Amino acid sequence: MSKVGEKTTAMPAPEIMPGGGIDPDLVKQDFPVLRQSINGHPLIYLDNAATTQKPVAVIKRLQTYYESDNANVHRGLHTLAERATDAFEATRDKIRSFINAGKREEIIYTRGATEAINLVAYTYGRQNVGPGDRIVITRMEHHANLIPWLELARQNKAELVYIPINSEGYLDLSEIDTIINNRTKIVALTHMSNVLGTINDVEEITALAHKKKAVCLIDGAQAVPHMPVDVQSLGADFYVFSAHKMLGPTGLGVLYGREELLQAMPPFNFGGEMISEVRFDKVTWNVLPWKFEAGTPAIAEAVAFAPALDYLENLGMENIRRHEIELTAYALSRLSELKHLTIYGPQNPEHRGGAIAFSDDKIHPHDMATFLDTQGIAVRAGHHCAQPLTRLLGVNSTTRASFYIYNNTNDIDTLHEALLAARRYFGHG
Ligand code: PMP
User: What residues have CB less than 8 Å from 185, skipping those under 6 apart?
Assistant: First the structure.
């Protein structure tokens, strides 16, 4: 698997089993961090919605980049600068093809999904949303796709209106024609919820937004790592995600934007790289994509994101999605055997991803996560950066187990046993 950049159209990757399933045990061997024990137990990493682990190919590329290619990009005329620039820009091409954007100019590097959303709110938002206009988001947004819009609405005296969710964890679209009205300028929603796991029907919402001449931003932080995404067929005007949630380094994210929108938007940050010509009294902007990339970017991170994309492509995003549906179905069935648990989000694994939030009727999520850590199991507990949604669920926090390509059904069995052990430990057995 560590053969970076090698396309396996003729020969499937060894991790793909006959029939298309992923062999998570083989995948695991490519992830050094997973080969350790935590508190005397083999590590079971179930915090993938927060960040994923990195395969050897990504770790090695970071090292070889610093050992042999390191230089600043775009401005040097020496060999190292050329190598760094070529590798940095080559990843942009890979990203373009990974999400099927039309042009490389539509792929903007950012620090993460959060910065990408802020970029759109500060530039497109400030330019196009005025007093009395409407911004529409949903009640299942991560803070990253809520606070920038709350702030924009407050500053520009616009309305922020939420698409509600029903008791099963799906968007309630019964009033959507009045929610997305003629004053709506921006509709922003998550492709996959990081708490409920719900996969939203993005195509339907982009079509509704376009009917009212609004643009649609999709937060794909939880979707791009887990399923095939085609930004053009989704009808997305903007689509954002983070490299670290899909095997890549931290500190790097992507904003996809339709070229004509990006062209018309003012820059976000000002400084080096984003200019064409500067005089003491005036400045012209660089062309896309660099107009939005002021300063020295995350070069090593972008370079080392390429083997992460290769890794996912070698496995095949359809295979990854299928693997996660199987794991999610298994997890939902094993966890629902535990009657003291409330499990949030859709029950149908075809309609959701493998981020499963739950709560125990007696044990606080923080105590539960700490106990699971004593068993070598890493999960997340808290509001998962979605406080309003968590409150809507009637709790202050939940425990969340989230899966990826290196997880198997044994991990879920071990989680199941540990959840029962927690009941005994805390005196509720
Ligand atoms: N949106 C969603 C749905 C997320 O799950 C996250 C990360 N938890 C983000 C946005 C923000 O991503 P980042 O912190 O990498 O900017």
Answer: 128, 129, 133, 134, 135, 158, 214, 215
Query: Which CATH code, of 3.40.50.2000, 3.40.640.10, 3.30.70.60, 3.20.10.10, is assigned to 61-312?
Result: 3.40.640.10
The residue contributing the CA closest to ligand 1 atom 5 is 194
- The residues, ordered by sequence, that sit 6+ positions from 275 with a Cβ below 8 Å of its Cβ are 283, 284, 285, 286
As for ligand 1, residues whose beta carbon falls within 6 Å of it are: 49, 112-114, 142, 144-145, 190, 194, 219, 221-222, 242, 253, 385
The answer to whether residue 17 scores a pLDDT higher than 90 is no
| Closest C-alpha residue for ligand 1 atom 4 | 221
Q: Which of 84, 116, 215, 385 is catalytic?
A: 385
The residue extents of the domains of the chain are 24-54+316-425, 61-312
Residue listed under structure tokens 């125990």:
360
**For 325-404, where are the E strands, in sequence order?**
341-343, 355-360, 377-378, 380-382, 398-402
171 CA distance to ligand 1 middle (Å): 19
Ligand 1: distance of its center to the CA of 218 in Å? 12
Report the interhelical angle of 56-64 vs 299-315 (nearest 10°): 150
β-strand partners of 216: 187
Nearest alpha carbon, ligand 1 atom 8? 50
Residue from 110, 142, 226 to probe ligand 1 pocket by mutation (most atoms less than 8 Å from CB): 142
In this predicted structure, the answer to whether residue 5 has a pLDDT above a threshold of 50 is no
The string of pLDDT tens digits covering residues 84-123 is 999 999 999 999 999 999 999 999 999 999 999 999 999 9
Q: Give yes or no for residue 16 having a pLDDT over 90.
A: no
Looking at residue 15, its pLDDT comes to 82
Q: Which residue has the tokens 């050992």?
A: 67
Phi, psi of 45 (to 5 degrees): -95, 110
Q: What is the CATH number of domain 24-54+316-425?
A: 3.90.1150.10
Q: Which residues contact 49 (CB under 8 A, 6 or more apart)?
A: 194, 222, 245, 355, 380, 384, 400, 402
Known active-site residue 216: no
Mean pLDDT for 153-176 is 98
Taking residues 326-349, what's their average pLDDT? 98
pLDDT at 11: 62
Whole-angstrom distance, CA of residue 189 vs CA of residue 205: 9
pLDDT of residue 12: 63
DSSP label at residue 267: P
